[in-house]
Specification:
Length: 413
């Protein structure tokens, strides 16, 4: 059949794919819409895209670019003509480059932007620091980086989430400072912790806090802003290796004790490298995550109408052939878009998206297909932009990684 082309005036967009059903579930299907691949101005050997939306609606794509012996964090803004020319924030030869833990650039306000990346320590090889730089002119110039964790241990520090915090930047991260302790029967004495701090616009640290004394070692974190303040989501860990999803609410400069979003009781003696996502509008909050409790792989979602003080019982967005890597975005009508990866082969996956409403209604499951599968190590990101959903992911061709992005009509979900 002929595929019509949809091309906004001046936009450097290429219609290459269709959204088609990607599940055996009996869900309604609409006419296959045209989606548009948005050319990303990233060189080869680029990876780990991140998407963020500023308070003024600015969409920012950031990524990691590798050219031995250096790596660099770069970003681009989305405009009418596609992605802008890339800007480099920082580069170095001693960076920690990892498929699961990656940099970000976040517009905190119209002027204040924040960026983070990872710097390797000398020894041991797995030890690294997360550093943060700020911009007071919307990303045009950047400060020298600052280390928000000041423990000085040769351990892991990463999986950072940044958010607006009283005119500055709030941060949470996974902190391995306890891992220098001798391993005993008390897992918490030598396990990964979740910590947070505030960073003022003039780079002054405050409100440093241990949020949770034992969490999963390498799952991503996320933060949403509600009418009652920030809410952070993460994968917890108990002494008997239950690794379920928790949230913590920020109140009067302090993070409260974490509570479970749901009790999956997923018992796994190792990190699944599969973090949750959270988004909010007012007091309405959605949390989405991957679980394989009882040997059933599923992506689940739960909702809150009281700014994450409590959550509804979760339900499956999809179950069976899913490997997680979830994304979440609130849509203009109050529904949510959920994304995840579905296994395609032993080392590749398909990117699926589904609309979900707070009353449990779900649209058809769709897959972004350009005739090529996505590497299973990719962590796709989604954000809304007007009537579109912007998607970005890492792609690999002949062992060379690239960044790809596309716009998906929200009306097609």
């Amino acid at each position: 059949m002929d595929i019509p082309s949809r091309r906004p005036p001046g936009a450097a967009l290429l219609a290459l794919g269709l959204l088609s059903a990607c599940t055996s579930e009996q869900t309604p299907e609409s006419a296959s819409p045209v989606i548009e691949l948005i050319d990303v101005p990233a060189a080869s050997e680029s990876m780990s895209p991140n998407l963020a939306v500023g308070p003024d609606g600015t969409v920012v794509l950031s990524w990691l670019e590798q050219h031995d012996p250096e790596a660099a964090v770069k970003f681009s803004r989305l405009g009418r003509d596609g992605w802008s020319d890339p800007q480099t924030i920082a580069q170095g030869e001693n960076w920690f480059v990892n498929w699961a833990d990656f940099p970000s650039v976040v517009p905190i306000s119209s002027d204040l932007w924040a960026a983070h990346w990872l710097v390797s320590q000398a020894e041991p090889w797995y030890a690294y620091n997360a550093v943060v730089a700020l911009s007071g002119d919307s990303g045009e110039t950047w400060s020298e980086p600052i280390n928000p964790h000041r423990d000085g241990t040769d351990t892991e520090h990463g999986f950072v989430s940044m958010f607006p915090d009283d005119g500055g930047v709030g941060l949470i991260w996974l902190d391995g400072r306890n891992m220098v302790n001798e391993v005993t029967d008390d897992i918490a004495a030598s396990g990964m912790t979740l910590r947070g701090a505030s960073l003022s616009s003039d780079l002054v640290l405050s409100n440093e806090q241990k949020i949770d004394g034992l969490i999963c070692d390498c799952c991503q974190t996320d933060v949403a802003i509600t009418d009652d303040g920030p809410v952070a989501i993460y994968r917890n860990r108990t002494s008997d290796e239950i690794r379920d999803i928790y949230v913590t609410r920020h109140d009067a400069k302090r993070w409260q004790e974490g509570i479970p979003v749901a009790n999956d009781n997923w018992n796994i003696a190792g990190c699944p490298v599969n973090g949750p996502a959270i988004d909010a509008d007012g007091k309405t909050v959605a949390a989405v995550w991957f679980s394989a409790a009882n040997d059933v792989s599923r992506v689940q979602i739960a909702f809150s109408d009281d700014a994450a003080e409590s959550f509804s019982s979760p339900f499956d967005v999809v179950s069976g052939e899913t490997i997680g890597r979830v994304g979440l975005a609130i849509l203009p009508d109050g529904d949510f878009a959920v994304s995840w990866l579905r296994k395609a082969s032993i080392d590749s996956a398909e990117l699926c998206i589904r609309r979900v409403s707070t009353d449990g209604d779900m649209g058809p499951v769709r897959v972004i297909s350009f005739g090529e599968d996505i590497p299973r190590f990719s962590f796709p990101k989604i954000v809304p932009k007007d009537k579109e959903l912007i998607v970005a992911w890492t792609h690999r061709i002949d062992d060379v990684s690239y960044i790809k992005s596309a716009s998906v009509p929200i009306s097609s979900l």
